[in-house]
Write a structure and sequence with these properties.
Rossmann fold; about 60% helix; mainly alpha; 3-stranded parallel sheet
Length: about 120
């Protein structure tokens, strides 16, 4: 599938899914697809992790469920399916957060002082 076609299909999604495995790596990273889905105004459901919890608030920017639990994942999917208002709020809030806080200018402002500490 071509990237443009993939983007088109994803843009029609009602919900984007993050990661749900119990891998230790998941605690340390935020998957690119989470950022990409948020930037496309698609609400995201993902397993709870340290990395995402540091960046995004449950039920404000993202929806978390227990990783590795089929029951928790299916319950979250069904709950979100039946709550369009929450899905819409998640999509809007995440999109606005990504645009405001995770754009190149803001990331540069946050990163520059840390880089200067290493040089000096």
């Amino acid at each position: 599938m071509q990237y443009a076609e993939l983007s088109e299909k994803i843009s029609r999604a009602d919900l984007g899914l993050g990661f749900f495995s119990q891998s230790k790596k998941i605690d340390r990273v935020i998957a690119n697809k989470v950022y990409e889905l948020m930037a496309m105004k698609i609400p995201v459901l993902t397993g709870t992790s340290i990395g995402t919890a540091e960046q995004f608030k449950h039920r404000e920017h993202i929806y978390y469920c227990q990783r590795g639990s089929v029951e928790a994942i299916s319950e979250a999917i069904l709950g979100l399916r039946n709550n369009k208002d929450l899905r819409d709020a998640l999509a809007k809030n995440a999109y606005n957060y990504v645009r405001k806080e995770l754009n190149p200018k803001m990331l540069g402002k946050k990163l520059l002082p840390e880089l200067e500490k290493l040089i000096i």
